[in-house]
Known about the structure:
Layout: E1 4-7, H1 10-15, H2 17-25, H3 36-46, E2 52-59, E3 62-75, E4 78-85, E5 97-98, H4 103-116, E6 123-130, H5 136-146, E7 149-162, H6 167-173, H7 176-192, E8 195-200, H8 207-221, H9 232-248, E9 251-258, E10 261-271, E11 274-282, H10 291-305, E12 310-315, H11 319-323, E13 327-337, H12 340-373
Parallel strand pairs: 4-6, 11-12
Antiparallel strand pairs: 1-2, 2-3, 3-4, 3-5, 6-13, 7-12, 7-13, 8-9, 9-10, 10-11
Amino acid sequence: xxxxxxxxxxxxxxxxxxxxxxxxxxxxxxxxxxxxxxxxxxxxxxxxxxxxxxxxxxxxxxxxxxxxxxxxxxxxxxxxxxxxxxxxxxxxxxxxxxxxxxxxxxxxxxxxxxxxxxxxxxxxxxxxxxxxxxxxxxxxxxxxxxxxxxxxxxxxxxxxxxxxxxxxxxxxxxxxxxxxxxxxxxxxxxxxxxxxxxxxxxxxxxxxxxxxxxxxxxxxxxxxxxxxxxxxxxxxxxxxxxxxxxxxxxxxxxxxxxxxxxxxxxxxxxxxxxxxxxxxxxxxxxxxxxxxxxxxxxxxxxxxxxxxxxxxxxxxxxxxxxxxxxxxxxxxxxxxxxxxxxxxxxxxxxxxxxxxxxxxxxxxxxxxxxxxxxxxxxxxxxxxxx
Length: 386
């Protein structure tokens, strides 16, 4: 059997489940997003026929690593084929699945194979690669030996919250104003509405709870560009993943009810004593009661009660995350080029994209400024009004 082989068919991907799972379980570096469930389900709903490139590396007859890749046909909207991670448009943390202490051998064989293989792609783009990944340094060393050019940049901020042994200890670490708000928000909500926090661990048995979260999410983000549940393929993917992760024992959904109506929710997955928050939303109808702050605090309290060590609040540096002692992490984008011509082409396209984005942003700001300077007549104050 060849030490390096490539799977290009979905049925072979499906048959890989048990082998992938054994490799996945061997390394605590993995998040739920390196699981076979996540990658295969994403591919099933969003993958393109003929584009799959799962690279398996073996040593002494044992699988030591998987590169979950596919051939992406477009880059920044233009037709430019390149290798990319599966689930690259949905997942915060992407990585290779590698058996511990085999990183150097895996990446050496992987990059030697890719460098000498078919030239149906111009470069490799590895987005949302975690700075804490144990794969990062051996990956950089080995790809520098096999390829003439690479680039590395920080492209995404994520925030995590370190958890203490007890809730009281955790609250004591918060700022004075935040400590006050935690208690006040809970009391204020309970004073005006009947409050009930429910925790769900099965998307199949408690499908109505997931429906409630989806309703909250849509109400919160309608018209604001969030699409987790807006498109039919996205909705099917989210529901299927919820069921699969329930069966794996990772699923946890916190729903806060106010007067028996769903008001806020936090959905995430637990692995290696770490809670990965994936979907967080609160209903605009209850905004004055700070239901988002309340459900997040209650979720943190439950995580601590379960002796979990970290709450990962995922991408985005929103202010509320730092109120809970959130710490910033960086995700990288690594691009590996077959030759310097490929580097030049990709860099030029990236420059055009960034320039276009800047112009679009400037135009939007100018349009908003003009609206502020010249409000509609119907919005103008009546003569004599105060």
